Amino acid sequence: MAEEKIAVYVCHCGTNIGGKVDVEKVVAWAAGQPNVAVAREYKYMCSDPGQDLIKQDIQKLGVNRVVVAACSPTMHEPTFRKAAADAGLNPFLLQMANIREHCSWVTEDRDQATEKAKRILSAQIHRLPHNQPLEPIEVPVNSDVLVVGGGIAGIEAALKLAQAGKKVYLVERKPSIGGHMAMFDKTFPTLDCAACILTPKMSAVGKDPNIELLAYSEVEEVDGYVGNFTVKVRKKPRYVNTDTCTGCAACMDACVVRKVPNEFDQGLSKRTAIYIPFPQAVPLRATIDPDNCLTLRGKKCKQPCVAACGPKAIDFDQKDEVVELKVGAIIVATGFELWDPRQEERYGYGRLDNVITSLEFERLSNASGPTGGHIVCKNGEPPKAVAILHCVGSRDENYQEFCSRVCCMYSLKFSHLIKEHLPETDVYQLYIDMRCYGKGYEEFYKRIMDEGVYFVRGRAAEVTDVALNPEEQGRLVVKVEDTLLGVVRRIPVDMVILSSGLSPAHDAKEVAQTFGFGCSANGFYLERHPKLEPVSTVTDGIFVAGACQYPKDIPDTVAQAGAAAAGALALVDNATVKVEPTVSYIDPEKCAGCHICVGVCPHSAIQYNEEKGVAEVIEAACKGCGVCVAACPAGVPQQRGFLDEQIFAEIEGALAV
Amino acid sequence: MKYLYFPGCSAEATAKPYDASARACAKALGIELVDLEDWNCCGSTSYFSIRELESFGVSARNLAIAQEMGGHDLVATCNACYTVLAKTNRYFAEDATLHAEINEALAAAGRRYDGKVRVRHFMDVLINDVGLDEITARVKRRLTDLRVACYYGCQYSRPMGTFDDPEFPTTMDRLVEAIGGDPVDYPVKTKCCGGMLMLTQEDAALKLCHELLAVAAREQADVIIAACPLCEMNVEAYQPLVNKAYGTDFHIPVMYFTQLLGVALGIDAHTLMLDKQIVPVDRVLAKVPA
Amino acid sequence: MVELETPEGVRELHRIFLEDVYGIPGGEKIRLCQQCGTCTGSCPTSYLMDYGPREVFAFFRAGMLDKVVKSNTIWLCTSCYYCTVRCPAGIKITDIMYELKRLAIKYDCWPRESKNPAMSKIFIDNVEKYGRNYELGLMAKFVLTKRPDLAWKFKDLGLKLFTSGRLPVKPVSVKGQEEIRKITEVLAAKEVAQ
Question: How far apart are CA A314 and CA A24, in angstroms?
């Protein structure tokens, strides 16, 4: 080894370190340590003058190893390594010694802090002579992007990327894109018709030459690493040839199975076994439901759909198809599910007639819904009074602890829609808090108050059909404490709308695992950082957007989708991407080819080379976790930057004080 | 199947028919109920109201005796006994301080408890240990569509909800179905009867009982069955007072669920103490074929 | 003895209350009340209470528990547990009601119109004497001392129960009465200390 000249910098970090650790003492001690050429202290090493200290010592004093005793490497290792690089020193010859989070912040005892700081520093001083210069690994980047989920988030992200000239694959599990937004009637606070603002975007997706739409398809497997993902997508069989089908819907008129609960209408209407989910579907193609089609269930059917189909597009022999996509980045925008209020039995959903969920109401109010836009009870009569119950399943330790964000606003919207359709109907809003935080939201709240809606501050205790007086006979009664009055009220109504919260999709955990990230405690996808990295995930190159990350309204969803598109673009717009070189290296001379490391690698980054009979690391996929280093019975894999001799030296250094 | 049995204070008095019919049903179903030796009052809601720690101690003596007798399951018929004993058991397990304090007190009485006993409701044993199929097999007099309002009461599955749902339990309804009855839609099935308020502030309790009776009448129930001595007493014995206060004319027979089960199992009316009911149950018995 | 008429007294009441409440498993959740009103809405007797359960927690938050222990609220609680099971903050409301009952008795400020405390006291006397609740004794003593009007109102019912054998005259005594006494003695000493 060439003669090492170590420079030691001990940062005060204001009083964070300086207030506990006797910095002067540490510096004086450090100056006398082996190989240390210079030891300095400074108030804020991360500042420009602080970094300049490092640069000058490298350039003027020929310092060739640096240790900065300061905060955690997660804070400023990149800062200092860049400073070293700027001064011409390989950045991996710089180490940080954490004497803040690991030292000054965890004790009140000054003596203890000072002693420990010395030990931590000593470990790095002993390690540094064993550090080797390393060069970052550059991998080429595939410029195509995969967007999973065809709701408004996925649609927006896809359009933005297509506009930037990238090829986008948009995979959607249902037969049509559009997601939940396609089901809504009007949207708050502008009262724009959801379909009117959504369908142009859906149409654009369908027509964009840069977007390849794989509807009625699901992602099965994701392999690879940033810039180089290989994704297996299963295209489910529609039993209809999408090239010849024109979406004329003649088959729907002909089908003999007519009583399947229509998912799009939340079960409020029936559909046929061969169906187009809604008139504005993109792609506008028929799909046959294999669980209900007589032919596909092996039963006898005259197949009138085949006769009715002009282009002869029906193909009962169609099989599913697995395609392999190669992309550089992935955006996961798989949306939400509505919380099932059957669980909150005291509200009577599923037991009492005319207790409905928010999505069911959207369909009732929607002109293209099961009742043609007439808000009516089960008996076909319009309700004379409607109660809208907030926080169903939300803000509740017994169900979902979190606030679902959009329910206050959509509840207000419902009041407006009811008043618009049925001006004589009384509308009651039963709320705990009114959360109207967005642009135009408070104004919308005032508007609804102005429309004569009755606001009752109280969380409904129960919904019952037990009448205690003639006025309640034959109606639903909502029992609630009007907390502002301090009086328990029984409000007779004809319809109860449960403003149910948004839940993570039932398979969120499995989907997250497929893509290589996790879920937060509440079950939604976990972002890399709640404030600063809301669209990235722990896996480089994989992004999330929309309600799958947390409940949010349409404006925030669209914004987040754009952010995810920007994140993906920032990656795939470059020809290459740099990956950390602290990866595993397997010496082919020493490897016996036992396969153990191949099996234990959690990132599938080790391949067995049949020809050479040795294991080989795919450097770009390796995350430097060290499992193979520990697992190999012969100790062959070494992690660059964390060689055995470096680690042993650290231990010796820590014990040497 | 052998269980330790906690009769409860009411079993010797107002709820004698509950105790008698429960024992008779147990015998008919092959369950051996061994009385808890020298059991004392569980404390119910009243003791808790005045003294907390002592209440736990009084209740825990029963658990200690049960453990000493080598029993794993202590079965209660009364909702309140079940809830108080189960709550004591649970808090004893969850709270280290309480655990220590109770054992210190029990030690003074020469006893000790290590949390080895499970507290169970008699219905839990019937549904989950005996099983509905077995019960159906032993039915001698099917109730043949007798309309039954299953009144669980508030402390049947609250607060713990161990063996049935806290808001809309179904075990009693399923039992009724298993013996041939028709459990009516009874949404007020877990609403409070007022409990002790019937004596201290009767207008409140009468109002609650009025609602319970009104819904049973609306559903044309032939009988209301209950699982708690106090519930049964309030809904049955105070019907005339409800009628007086509300101008109604309720004459709905009320039984303990074990009495109805006993009828289905072919046990005679005298053993089931059906003659001790305040509202005569002849109409009910007349509807059940011999 | 806590003086509830002075601010220091009220603060002391709060301190004792919190100490006891935090001793209940999950008791610290009392701080999480959203004032949503589900408890009051679900309570079968809240319409008779001076302050519903929700208000009890509002008074707690405002440092005014003295008003609550003097009210009839807690004595109307039947422990039906609806509030506890439905509370979105997971507060053990029924247990806290019990706690308030104990404080009201301890500090002798329960409303004299409420008959519940008397009922509970007679119940305890019975248990201390016999180890079991002596129903006839309980009803008789209560009616005669607190609600003589009930003697007339419930006379038919009382007679029916008596003649059908559902109200035995003789109380049943537990053999281990001494054990019970020892148990309660040990625990009573701890209660005072708390």
Answer: 83
C-chain residue closest to B90, CA distance? C25
Residues of chain B with CATH 1.20.1050.140: 2-122
Each residue's pLDDT tens digit, C140-184: 899 888 888 888 888 888 888 888 888 888 888 889 889 989 998
B130-178 residue pLDDT tens: 999 999 999 999 988 899 999 999 999 999 899 999 999 999 999 999 9
Q: Which of A346, A397, A481 sits opposite C54 (nearest CB)?
A: A481
Interface with chain B: mutation pick from A342, A343, A344, A345, highest number of B CBs within 10 Å:
A345
C39 to chain A: closest CA residue: A461
Inspect the interface and report whether the beta carbons of B237 and C160 lie closer than 8 Å.
Answer: yes
Average pLDDT of each block of 10 consecutive residues along chain A (657 residues)?
85 94 96 94 95 95 95 92 96 96 95 96 96 92 98 98 98 97 96 96 97 98 91 98 96 96 96 96 97 96 96 96 98 98 96 97 96 96 98 96 97 98 97 96 97 97 94 96 96 98 97 94 95 92 97 97 98 93 93 92 87 91 90 94 94 94
Q: Are A471 and A492 in contact (CB under 8 A)?
A: yes
State the fold for domain B141-277: Rossmann fold (3.40.50)
Task: Look at B108 and C135 and tell me if their CB atoms are within 8 Å.
Answer: no
C152 at interface of A, judged by CB pairs closer than 8 A: no
Residue C35 CA to chain centroid, in angstroms? 23
CATH 3.40.50.11810 positions along chain B are: 141-277
Q: Tell me the two tokens of residue C49.
A: 């209470």
Is residue A596 classed exposed, middle or buried when 0-12, 13-18 and 19+ CB atoms within 10 A define those classes? Answer: middle
Task: Name every chain A residue with its beta carbon within 8 A of the beta carbon of B187.
Answer: 464-466
Are the beta carbons of B230 and B196 closer than 8 angstroms? Answer: yes
Rounded to two decimals, the pTM is 0.89
Peptide bond into A311 cis (omega under 30): no
Q: Which fold has domain B2-122?
A: Glutathione S-transferase Yfyf (Class Pi); Chain A, domain 2 (1.20.1050)
Q: How many beta-carbon pairs under 8 angstroms link A with C?
A: 63
- Please report the domains of chain C, with CATH numbers, ordered by start residue: 7-106 (1.10.1060.10), 116-193 (no CATH)
Tell me the residues of chain C between 95 and 124 that have a Cβ less than 8 Å away from chain B. 98-99, 101-102, 105, 114-121, 123-124
> Cα-atom radius of gyration of chain B, to the nearest Å?
19
* Residue C151 in contact with partner chain B when CB distance is under 8 A: no
Contacts of C55 in chain A (CB under 8 A): 486
- Please indicate whether the domains covering A145-236+324-335+505-572 and A339-501 agree at the CATH topology level: yes
Residues in B 166-185 with any Cβ partner in C closer than 8 A: 166-167
Portion 146-205 of B in contact with A at CB < 8 A: 165, 167-168, 187-188
Residues of chain C with C-beta less than 8 angstroms from the C-beta of B52 = 20, 98-99, 102, 191
What residue ranges do the domains of chain A occupy?
6-134+648-656, 145-236+324-335+505-572, 237-319, 339-501, 580-640
Give CA–CA dist A541/A141, Å, rounded: 10
- For domain A580-640, the question of CATH label 3.30.70.1350 is answered with no
For chain B, strand residue ranges (E) read 2-6, 32-35, 73-76, 118-121, 147-151, 182-183, 223-226, 254-256
CA separation for the pair B236, B213 (Å, rounded)? 9
C-chain residues near A396 (CB < 8 A): 88
Q: Which CATH number fits domain A237-319: 1.10.3470, 1.20.1740, 3.30.300, 3.30.70?
A: 3.30.70
In this complex, do A461 and C46 lie within 8 Å of one another by their Cβ atoms?
Answer: no
Strands B223-226 and B147-151: parallel
Domain A6-134+648-656 has CATH 2.40.128: no
